[in-house]
């Protein structure tokens, strides 16, 4: 459970860094997401999920 909490914390750190470093780019990215189809967003989410699982699997295996 503690690893899950650490993972959630890291996600929040990364998101916070994006908003601190490039708030305009974050706003543009959100606006672009509104123009994309649900299927395209789902596909991108599935790809991100898969890449994330592979990264965690590799990191835990090393």
Descriptive notes:
- The protein has 62 residues and is mainly α.
- It has one domain (2-61).
- The protein is 92% helix and 0% strand.
- The protein has helices spanning 2-21, 23-35, 38-61.
- Tell the overall outline: flat
Multimeric organization? single chain
Encode the helix/strand succession as letters: HHH
- What structural class do the secondary elements suggest? mainly alpha
Output the radius of gyration: 14 Å
The DSSP helix count reads: 3
Percent helix range: over 70%
The fraction of residues assigned to DSSP E strands is: under 5%
Biggest sheet statistics:
none
* Unreliable stretches covering 5 or more consecutive residues: none
**Strand elements, count:** 0
Span of the ends, CA to CA = 20 Å
**Mean pLDDT figure:** 94
Search tags:
62 residues, mainly alpha, 3 helices
Give the gist of this structure.
It contains three helices and no strands. The chain has one domain.
Topology readout:
Blueprint: H1 2-21, H2 23-35, H3 38-61
Helix pairs in contact: 1-2
């Amino acid at each position: 459970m503690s690893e899950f909490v650490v993972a959630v914390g890291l996600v929040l750190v990364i998101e916070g860094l994006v908003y601190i470093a490039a708030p305009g780019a974050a706003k543009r990215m959100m606006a672009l997401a509104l123009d994309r189809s649900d299927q395209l967003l789902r596909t991108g989410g599935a790809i991100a999920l898969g890449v994330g699982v592979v990264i965690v699997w590799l990191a835990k295996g090393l």
